[in-house]
């Protein structure tokens, strides 16, 4: 269900990027938007979404910068 959750989140104005990493979804979103993310996922039918703020990894930064450089960020929605 990660692809479906990613599609939901990428439609939100305060979500900058989302990428699937193994069995989790890394989301780059505006600071302080955790409760909004949880609410959006709950409204979309995802039961009890668990969000854990983490600092971006080097891989997160690389993937995001690569998408922006290619000019196709958010084109995978």
Write the layout of secondary structure elements.
Blueprint: H1 2-10, E1 15-21, E2 24-29, H2 34-43, H3 58-70
Antiparallel strand pairs: 1-2
Order of helices and strands: HEEHH
Low-confidence stretches: none
Q: Tally the helices: what do you get? A: 3
Strand order of the largest sheet: 1-2
The largest sheet is: 2 strands, antiparallel
> What gap, in angstroms, lies between the N and C termini?
14 Å
Mean pLDDT: 84
Task: Characterize the overall form.
Answer: globular
> Class by helix and strand content?
alpha+beta
Number of strands: 2
Query: How large is the share of residues in beta strands?
Result: 15-25%
Percentage of residues assigned to helices:
40-55%
Radius of gyration: 12 Å
Textual characterization of the structure:
The chain is 42% helix and 17% strand. The protein contains three helices and two strands; from the N terminus they run H-E-E-H-H. A two-stranded antiparallel ribbon has the order 1-2. It has helices at residues 2-10, 34-43, 58-70, and strands at 15-21, 24-29. It has 77 residues and is α+β, with helices and mostly antiparallel strands.
